[in-house]
Specification:
Layout: E1 5-8, H1 14-23, E2 31-32, H2 46-54, E3 57-62, H3 64-67, H4 70-81, E4 85-90, H5 98-104, E5 110-111, H6 117-130, E6 174-175, E7 178-181, E8 186-189, E9 197-202, E10 224-226, E11 232-239, E12 242-249, E13 256-257, E14 265-269, E15 275-280, E16 283-288, E17 295-299, E18 306-308, E19 313-318, E20 323-328, E21 335-336, E22 352-356, E23 362-367, E24 376-381, E25 387-392, E26 395-400, E27 404-409, E28 412-419, E29 424-434, E30 438-439, E31 443-444, E32 446-448, E33 455-457, E34 466-472, E35 477-479, E36 487-492, E37 498-504, E38 508-514, E39 519-524, E40 531-537, E41 543-550, E42 553-560, E43 566-570, E44 576-583, E45 589-596, E46 602-607, E47 613-617, E48 623-628, E49 634-640, E50 646-652, E51 659-660, E52 667-671, E53 677-682, E54 685-693, E55 698-699, E56 703-707, E57 718-720, E58 726-732, E59 741-746, H7 748-752
Parallel strand pairs: 1-2, 1-3, 3-4, 4-5
Antiparallel strand pairs: 6-7, 7-8, 9-59, 10-11, 11-12, 12-13, 14-15, 15-16, 16-17, 18-19, 19-20, 20-21, 22-23, 23-24, 24-25, 26-27, 27-28, 28-29, 30-31, 32-33, 33-59, 34-35, 34-58, 36-37, 37-38, 38-39, 40-41, 41-42, 42-43, 44-45, 45-46, 46-47, 48-49, 49-50, 50-51, 52-53, 53-54, 54-55, 54-56, 57-58
Length: 754
């Protein structure tokens, strides 16, 4: 009698394959496996041909050995020509040879090496049942012919042996509720409830997923958009020095460039999946996926993205999620949404990652009421501007037609039932999946098909890991040799032998690094719901200050390095936030950032001798990141000059008129220790300006000091060595294949959330 499953493998993998098969004994599935080994065969016997013709599913055990085997190639080709289901199971990472590209293109695979033994068995069981194989305990798909009676395994010497039941189940070919069969010429319809499976999708080396660009308050822009029916997704790809949008169908192995989308990020699709909108050149644009030139809809400076409602309106953020507007999908005049104060405090990103609900009246948005608190998911009424919190400690929400909201919390995805008619949450949240790459706190690199639940995501962890690296004025680079971490702002000691850094593991704490001896320690540990960061040395290197958030208070503390007891330096109140500052060299004055509800970020000066706090810069703009010149005369800082265009300014520490220093989006000024040069960052460049005369503050022309991979982090993204010749930066670290491999989970909600 014929077996339902045929195993194609290399004899050199016999031990591993045999172990998998033996562990599957007793589940009642018939399997044909050549124990003598295909490589040992002197001819491709009629028995093998017959076994393939009689089976329902051929499982190819993919390895470097099997893909080099001529007989394995023959078996796969015969199975494909016969219309059999082909399930690739990867024993190791291996490339498919060109002679098998046709048969295996478009078929997803199971990575056995990445699963536990029990997980592998369970995945195999379900997949075989879906493809019509008899698996006791699992209903066989009704659209596939009934299973044949079990047959025998055959040794190469012709002796019959006992049956080996084999269960198999993976996402192999499962895409949008159907399985790709053989070369893709036949599709077997299955119930969505039976297709909750996982797979990997590789992106071309020339078009990897672009990083989510971090903007000022640590917010990122998700760069993946899944179609509502789950048939394809659009993503922003790194394309040479810029970005570009690409379309990837799930049943194909190739990607399609979308013309006219150079510089694009944060894509989102129209409800009918015919158009994609995106941000490029500080403009909101759209382009038809069937071809044509992109259309500019309106200005969208410093946007983090938007959403396309089913009533024809597009909602888009501006000014780093400080504002949100609506515009008709065909263009015209935009209309600002007047948001009530209970959602957003001015100066904080309170309108991040909008997502339209059915009907168009309500949006899901993420709000961060201050830089240290967790994000929350809010329901925003676009007609009244009123809002209320739905989910605490979560962000980047998506709504599903099944009646669920999906959101991320650090690197985990959660879901909770939601009734849009009420609108109210129903029941408790549930963990959906772990290991989703997030950057900028809660900006998850994932997207969910509204109608089918197909989930696509970039695997990884919370935050953007990076390695501390020295760079110099000649372009030379040297790693510090420390472990890669999710760094916040950091500060070199006056001697350059120690480093204070904000590190997220998992909450923000202050770490001390001994650069000479390669030692590290946590000097200020934050609680699970707290924050400690923005550390700064004093002029002697014996004491440092840091920002601390516990409960509702955001304050600045001072501490001797040798004494674990810290002292409160700048007291906070429930309606004010004190976050970062720096001492003058003489230790008499402290310039710091603060925020109140009636203004944006401002600068103030604390006089240690008098105990008084005097305003330095109090405007309707955002001023942040103060750095004092070594002679204690000048304060350099970054200011939002035009409502989204940041530049570096310098003001006398005693007050006066600020002087603009940068003119091409300059950020994060730092003085050299000798006071002769002011350095600032422009995107991936470090730019310097020499002082002509410090008394009247005149500068020479700017010049590029260094250009390269500088990770942007909230606060300051670099620091300068005491001699002014080297610069400490964080270079982002990507695991091999991280940006080129996405993960797919199909129809997870139909089984997981019942």
């Amino acid at each position: 009698m014929a077996a339902e499953v045929f195993i194609s493998y290399s004899s050199q993998d016999f031990e591993g394959v045999h172990g998998i098969v033996e562990r599957l004994c007793g589940v009642g599935v018939s399997v044909w496996m050549d124990e003598g080994g295909i490589e040992a065969a002197t001819l491709w016997s009629e028995a093998i041909v017959e076994a393939i013709n009689d089976c329902k599913v051929l499982i190819i055990m993919v390895s470097g050995h099997s893909t080099d085997s001529p007989n394995v190639v023959k078996e796969v080709m015969l199975a494909s020509e016969s219309g059999k289901v082909i399930l690739p199971v990867y024993l190791e990472g291996a490339e498919i040879p060109s002679r098998l590209k046709y048969q295996l293109t478009g078929i997803q695979h199971l990575e056995a090496f990445a699963l536990s033994e029990s997980g592998l068995i369970e995945e195999l069981r379900r997949g075989l049942a879906i493809n019509g194989v008899t698996v006791p305990g699992i209903e066989t798909s009704s659209t596939v012919a009934p299973a044949k009676p079990p047959s025998h395994r055959r040794k190469k010497n012709g002796n019959s042996t006992r049956l080996l039941p084999l269960a198999a189940g993976c996402l192999i070919g499962v895409l949008i509720g159907w399985f790709a069969v053989g070369s893709g010429s036949r599709r077997t319809e299955v119930s969505p409830a039976l297709t909750t499976v996982n797979a990997s999708i590789s992106l071309p080396e020339t078009a990897p997923l672009a990083d989510a660009s971090v903007i000022q308050y640590g917010a990122s822009r998700p760069n993946i958009a899944m179609a509502s029916d789950g048939s394809f997704f659009v993503y922003a790809a790194k394309n040479r020095k810029s970005t570009m949008l690409y379309k990837r169908k799930l049943d194909q192995d190739s990607v399609e460039a979308i013309n006219g989308t150079e510089g694009a990020f944060a894509p989102f699709l129209s409800p009918d999946n015919q158009w994609v909108a995106f941000i490029a050149d500080n403009k909101l644009k759209k382009v038809s996926l069937s071809g044509g030139s992109p259309q500019i809809l309106t200005d969208a400076p410093h946007s983090v993205g938007g959403t396309w409602a089913d009533d024809g309106l597009i909602y888009c953020t501006t000014n780093e999620a400080a504002e949100i507007f609506s515009i008709n999908e065909n263009g015209g005049e935009s209309s600002k949404i007047e948001v009530k104060d209970n959602l957003q405090v001015e100066g904080y990103p309170g309108l991040l990652w909008p997502h339209a609900l059915p009907g168009g009246r309500h949006l899901l948005v993420s709000s961060q009421l201050n830089p240290q608190k967790q994000f929350s998911v809010h329901l925003l009424d676009v007609e009244t501007g009123e809002s209320r919190q739905l989910v605490f400690n979560g962000g980047c929400p998506h709504y599903l037609s099944s009646g669920h909201i999906v959101y991320c919390r650090k690197s985990d995805l959660f879901s909770v039932r939601f009734d849009p008619g009420t609108p109210e949450l129903v029941g408790d949240e549930q963990l959906v999946h772990e290991g989703v790459r997030t950057g900028g706190k809660y900006a998850g690199q994932f997207s969910v098909a509204k109608d089918t639940g197909t989930l696509v995501y970039l695997p990884g962890v919370f935050g953007r890991s990076g390695g501390l690296t020295w760079v110099d004025r000649n372009g030379n680079e040297e790693s510090l040799g420390l472990k890669e971490r999710v760094f916040g702002t950091y500060n070199l000691s006056p001697k350059g032998d120690q480093l204070l850094a904000q590190v997220w593991e998992p909450t923000a704490s202050v770490w001390l690094f001994d650069l000479e001896n390669k030692l590290e320690s946590i000097v200020e540990q934050s609680a699970s719901d707290g924050f400690k960061g923005f550390p700064r040395w004093d002029a002697d290197g014996d004491e440092f200050t840091f920002s601390s958030t516990e409960g509702e208070l955001h304050e600045i503390f001072s501490r001797k390095l040798a004494n674990p007891a810290s002292q409160k330096l700048i007291e906070g109140t429930p309606d004010t936030i004190k976050i970062e500052g720096v001492w003058t060299r003489d230790g008499k004055r402290y310039v710091y950032n603060h925020f109140t509800e009636d203004s944006k970020w401002d600068l103030s000066v604390f006089n240690k001798e008098t105990g008084r706090h005097e305003p330095l810069m109090t405007t309707d703009k955002t001023e942040w990141g103060p750095r004092i010149s070594p002679d204690d005369k000048w304060v350099a800082f970054t200011m939002d000059k035009t409502g989204g265009a940041y530049e570096v300014f310098v003001i006398p520490i005693d007050g006066g008129t600020p002087q603009q220093v940068s003119f091409d989006n300059g950020l994060e000024p730092v003085w050299t220790a000798d006071g002769t040069e002011l350095i600032y960052r422009e995107a991936k460049k470090l730019v310097g300006r020499k002082l002509k005369n410090s008394n009247i503050l005149s500068f020479r022309e700017p010049y590029v000091i260094y250009e390269g991979n500088i990770m942007a982090i909230p606060g300051h993204s670099y620091d300068v060595s005491p001699d002014g010749q080297r610069f400490l930066v964080v270079k982002e670290v990507h695991q091999q294949g991280e940006s080129r491999e996405l993960k797919i989970i199909t129809h997870w909600f139909s089984t997981f959330l019942e």
